[in-house]
Design a protein that fits this description.
Elements lengths: L3 E10 L2 E11 L4 E5 L6 H8 L7 E6 L8 E4 L4 H4 L5 H6 L14 H13 L15 H15 L3 E5 L7 H17 L3 E5 L3 H7 L2 E5 L3 E6 H6 L1 H7 L8
Helix pairs in contact: 4-5, 5-6
């Protein structure tokens, strides 16, 4: 059974269709990049996968005992997030909220998990520092650690490298790939960086208000849309 799949899923708001006929399956351990121009429906699909919105038609299926609240989610950074008045440890620990159930307080296991994920992201020495004092790359490492605290088998990342300099961007891509490879974590990432997508991802989902392509990165390069983009002739804003 697939870890997560869409079967002819169509999404929209107030009855107006934004994205139609999405049809793909991931079985565990894949790294899928979602590509498409601005406004193509990428973030709408992420909301659908997180069960924040329901499909107008078709289905989103979650298998392997995975629950919606066990998906690690790293949204696009907002100005509020960038200036969040909390310590690094507090931000990462908040990733455990959805797994607490009716418990009113964090358990020692929750705290141990936060410490572990902070260390994994190379941010141990910053644990007590204010989140808002960090650099852009450091903030994204913290948010990645937070998403890992929530993740069971799947992480969804919405343009995690947006606004980062090239060095921080490269470092974050390597961290995400290591999480995918070493933890067998399925990664679904929205990206505008097709070159990084083809370097790191195992699968590509290309959207333009509908599904234009789903398959391996290798097959994407050989496909008509892949070739057209690589030749610079798509006109898409990546």
């Amino acid at each position: 059974m697939a870890l997560i799949s869409c079967e002819k899923a169509t999404f929209g708001y107030d009855g107006e269709i934004v994205l139609s006929d999405i049809d793909f399956s991931l079985y565990g351990g894949e790294y899928m990049c979602i590509l498409g121009e601005n406004g193509a429906g990428k973030s709408t699909l992420v909301k659908g996968l997180l069960k924040l919105i329901n499909p107008i038609s078709g289905t989103v299926n979650i298998g392997e005992g995975l629950k919606a609240h066990e998906m690690g989610y790293m949204p696009q950074q907002t100005a509020i997030q960038k200036n969040f008045p909390a310590s690094v440890f507090e931000v990462v620990l908040s990733g455990r909220i959805n797994s607490m159930g009716l418990r009113p307080f964090y358990s020692q296991k929750d705290k141990d998990e936060a410490h572990e994920k902070i260390k994994l992201m190379g941010m141990k020495e910053y644990e007590k520092k204010s989140y808002q004092e960090l650099s852009g790359g450091q903030k994204q490492r913290v948010l990645l650690a937070r998403a890992l605290c929530a993740a069971g088998k799947l992480m969804l990342l919405d343009e995690p490298t947006a606004g980062l300099d090239p060095v921080a961007t490269g470092d974050l891509y390597e961290l995400i790939k290591n999480i995918n490879s070493n933890m067998n974590m399925t990664v679904i990432m929205v990206s505008h960086d097709v070159h990084a997508a083809l370097k790191y991802a195992s699968h590509i989902l290309h959207l333009s208000h509908r599904q234009l392509f789903f398959g391996t990165a290798e097959d994407y390069i050989k496909s008509g849309i892949g070739k057209e983009f690589m030749e610079g002739g798509t006109g898409y804003d990546y």
